[in-house]
Amino acid sequence: MKKRADARLVLEDGTVLLGRSAGAEGEATGELVFNTALSGYQEILTDPSYHGQVILMTYPLIGNYGIAPGDDESGRPGAAGLVVREMSRIASNYRAGTSLPAYLRDQGVVAIDQVDTRFLTRKVRTGGAMRVLLSTDTEASDEELVARCKKSPSLEGRDLVQEVTRKEEQNWDQGFLTDLDPREEFSHSPRPRIPIVAVDCGIKRNILRCLVETGFDIRVVPAHTKAEDILSTGPKGIFLSNGPGDPSAVPYLVETVRKLIFDHSMTTFGICLGHQILAQVLGAKTFKMKFGHHGGNHPVRDLRSGRIHITSQNHSFAVDPDTLPDSVEITHLNLNDQSIEGIAHRELPVWSVQHHPEASPGPHDAMGLFQAFYERLSQ
After folding, report:
1. Does 358 participate in catalysis according to the annotation?
2. CATH of domain 161-378
3. Residue 184 annotated to the active site
4. Is position 210 annotated as part of the catalytic site?
5. Of 12, 43, 341, 358, which residue is the catalytic one?
6. Catalytic one among 12, 272, 345, 355?
7. What does the domain layout of the chain look like in residue ranges?
8. pLDDT by residue (tens digit) across 150-196?
9. Res 264 pLDDT > 70
10. With a threshold of 0.90, does the pTM exceed it?
């Protein structure tokens, strides 16, 4: 087996850690965010919402079950890089097609292991998200790498949606690929199919699969699609997807959704970035969080039912509660920090959640939200 090259992790505050290369050779920069999920690294790596970020996995052993064909959430990795305590060189899983290190090399993703991930996690929690550089360059000095890191762009003010959204419209009709997971959240009896448009801000494949299984006929459109073109397909509802970057940096999408809602009374459901877009449409503002929410174990209270759901999350921005107008109701709260996890207009048929009901990876507690969307459109 080829010996892995030395690698360094450099933070913008001057911290330098020496580790081992666990992926492609080269250099990667981005915002360092930690993810607390115990598994699901393939889905996390290929989630377009991580575009512009380097993922730090808090669980110490990553890669032991390899990479399975069909489990990608998009056509390419979204994350700029990966940091783990220990990367498994072998894959023990009958579904695996390759090992994680081999996959990262094939996809050109720089990764590093044998670094103190607990130290890095504490650093991010204390100091907040910061820029990071991963490098296998053995010739450059530490000072040179720190300078490169400081020159890299931050997430604030960047429209990353345009870098991950699809180029052309597409009909999506693919449901679940396997029967490995519980499916009681979805109806298997014949039911009328409802046409909707899903606005792709960096949408995950399992979101689309959940929508298909729920009973929707889906037309997926790029994020820059005009309201008139969206309406021309004849949808009964609009779905606003997850995505990367600063939600305040996509005013064109906010304006499109505003027209759909206020000029054409379209029933609209958003998740993650879609939630933040909808909040801006309704008059609120967003802000950059200290270190965000990234993981599969975040407790969320549904304020209407009182139920608590353990949810999957991935976001670095949130809705400012002090800017919400009286016409908007807060429907969900994060129990870790009391940040907004869901909103609904008091009169218009529009609502959203900050967490990921499709999980992938994560618990299925919130999957009923897809069914609620279907029932709303069935009325």
Report:
1. yes
2. 3.40.50.880
3. no
4. no
5. 358
6. 272
7. 6-151, 161-378
8. 999 999 999 999 999 999 999 999 998 765 554 555 656 678 999 99
9. yes
10. yes
